[in-house]
Amino acid sequence: MSAEATSIRFVKGHGTQNDFLLIPDTDATLGEQLDEAFTRRIADRHAGLGADGVIRVVPAARVPGHEDLDDVEWFMDYRNADGSVAEMCGNGVRVMARYLWESGLADGPMLSIATRGGVRTVHAEPDGTFTVEMGHAKPASTRQMSFVAVGGNTWPATPVWVPNPHAVVFVDDVAAAGLLTEPPQVRPAAVFPESANVEFVVDRGPRHIALRVWERGVGETRSCGTGVCAAAWAAMRRDGVGAGSTYAVDVPGGQLSVTERPDGELLLTGPAVLGVRGTVDTES
Ligand SMILES: N[C@@H](CCC[C@H](N)C(=O)O)C(=O)O
């Protein structure tokens, strides 16, 4: 380790196998070190620790623009594995809440966490799962048709923001998307100016769907909480069911559920798991 390098603590966690490196930054001194290059290095599955995303756990009072939130002590500083910054992470916010509770940094059973996409409140459920108030889904502001293309195949897509951008595609078989070695193309660019996460969705039964997801800034992952909300919201519109409905959503890494409250708030329920802890140097 060079003279300038520092040792940083991390905790590995996952929600339905969407996995994260949580970096506690309780005195807000690590922001500059946890940059794009460092994130890429530690998130790398071969040369680093491996993760879909990195979450810097930092006091909201020390994050410009989030200093004055009532009853919100913590901010989720989320980066995808490629180092890009994202609005928030539906699986990660459950894992972060569990970490804060188990570390004694917050009291339960309810915790509000600030994110770039707004404040999200997490509730610890009696059965050991966690429910997140995910906000309202926002459909596209234009009626322009949207598409997802992979290889030679193109499907119509439903664009929706939760608040991360998503393109939801209904297919007969999730295998139709192929191996997904390249990012799916989302079109037109005017609808998706910041690109999008893509969900390939099939029906499993009444109010029960399954999906594969390509995460912007990562690749194909085993789950995506905002993507699961986007897919359930799109399926509810397609099925013409009213608010108050709950959909079960199978992902490669497990199962989540999404309820749309009568006021339109989406509730995402699922597990949060904490695992390996250790330290990593800021310079390799
Ligand atoms: N895995 C997350 C979403 C993470 C951000 C996403 N890749 C993006 O760039 O929008 C989730 O569980 O929601």
UniProtKB/TrEMBL annotation:
Stated name of the protein: Diaminopimelate epimerase
Annotated metabolic or biological route of this protein: Amino-acid biosynthesis; L-lysine biosynthesis via DAP pathway; DL-2,6-diaminopimelate from LL-2,6-diaminopimelate: step 1/1
Gene3D superfamilies in UniProt: Diaminopimelate Epimerase, Chain A, domain 1
NCBIfam families: DapF (TIGR00652)
GO MF assignments: diaminopimelate epimerase activity
Entry function: Catalyzes the stereoinversion of LL-2,6-diaminopimelate (L,L-DAP) to meso-diaminopimelate (meso-DAP), a precursor of L-lysine and an essential component of the bacterial peptidoglycan.
Gene Ontology biological process terms, A to Z: lysine biosynthetic process via diaminopimelate
Residues under site feature: Could be important to modulate the pK values of the two catalytic cysteine residues: 166, 215
A Pfam family matched in the record: DAP_epimerase
GO cellular component terms given for this protein: cytosol
Location, primary (coarse class): cytoplasm
Residues annotated for substrate binding in this entry: 18, 80, 90-91, 164, 197, 215-216, 225-226
Subunit structure: Homodimer.
Keywords from the named record: Amino-acid biosynthesis, Cytoplasm, Isomerase, Lysine biosynthesis
InterPro entries with a match to the protein in the record: DAP_epimerase_AS (IPR018510), DAP_epimerase_DapF (IPR001653)
Compartments (UniProt record): Cytoplasm
Enzyme nomenclature, EC number: 5.1.1.7
Family statement drawn from the similarity comment of this UniProt entry: Belongs to the diaminopimelate epimerase family.
Keyword hit for Cytoplasm: yes
List of catalytic residues: 89 (proton donor), 89, 224 (proton acceptor)
